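Researcher: Let's run the pair from yesterday's discussion. Sequence first, then tokens, for each.
Model: Starting with the first of the pair.
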Amino acid sequence: MNKIVVITEIHDIEEGTVRSEYPGVLVDARHAFYIDTEYKTVILERIDRVNGEYRTTGGPGSVGFDLVVDDVAFFDRITEMSAVELLAALVRRNVSA
């Protein structure tokens, strides 16, 4: 998996276009994992490459899943993780709360 930046753009009537950039990894030519560190959420979403940027496509069915995770630090080493390590990071939840 190659590290990329995933871009989302939302068109707001009052604010105009709101652009957000997230660290991500390319899963295949049309999908990427990216992480929203503010909400501790990992998202698998359909993307398009537009003018050299990886942009979310939006629309029905574009999000494969979004998962809240305990710790976003694993994303820094996502390209070095085995499939089992990645799955463990995605499903591990803090049960002491």
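Model: Moving on to the second of the pair.
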Amino acid sequence: MSAGCGPIPLPPSRQWRFGRCSCCDRQTLVAPGPQIHTVDGRAVTLPYCVDGFERAARYVHRVGLRASVRG
């Protein structure tokens, strides 16, 4: 993700299902997270819980702050 990314929105309610979260490994409600590009060029989507979406949004925010301080 680049520093210019905005916040990561929560998916609509119809995309949530019961499953295992990729960030915390809990059985909970999950939805498709942001796309991640692999080394071989494929794009995968990992299931995230609500906490995972919040963590990802904080991470993107911190990256943006660091880029603005260094830039």
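Researcher: Give me one sentence on the second I can quote.
Model: The chain has a mean pLDDT of 85.
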